[in-house]
Amino acid sequence: MQTSAALRPVDQCRHRFRCLHCSDTNIFCDCYANCHKDHPRQPLVTDEYLLNQYGSKSDYAEYSEISVFNCPYCDKQKLSVGTLYDHITLEHLDVPFDVRCPICVCFGSNNSLIKNIHLSKHIVDDHSVTMEQYHEQILIYDTHCNDERELLIFLASTLPPTYHAGGEEYEIEPEIAAARSTPQTHQVASSNAPRTIASTCSICLDMIVSARVLPCQHRFHAACIELWMRQSATCPVCRKPT
Known about the structure:
The protein is mostly helical.
């Protein structure tokens, strides 16, 4: 006898979720259409999905932005860790209720509700690394090239280092912050080219069309790096003197 969709075990379903709001930490699936129907939910991303959708690149700079997270406040979907952080700090900074972190839920590291702190602080505290740590992880992949899954999870779940310095948040120049939400003359908003580490300015996180190249060979928008150098005389990526 064939198992009906309504009775199929959750572990056998292709799309599985966890609720981002309530205290129930059980996994549920599309077979249970009424389960948490009014709550934002986070899909559990499988290794197979990660590798099929974002893997099989010859160099880490070719990896597209991994957009697999849902907002726990409004259920906006398919956000990367960077766009999730931008979204909740711009749209939901004053939301009072506790939620689950979609990054933790997605990769199974923690299913608890976040208590007493905003999700944006949790992301900085738990899902960010220093610039040195970021490039150390990339170097490990470049050296060994034996676990693409680990690289994908790292890139998917780590806030880009330009959001903080030394593990602490810092205030970005208003002109740079505006570049994240306002089209600039050096950007092509209608471009269908994928955003990759190599093609994205690591200061404003937008596509590079015309770049200024530093002696260390890292590339940025000219306006962005000029603003950066008002605060620091080192490259934002490798910290070498400019």
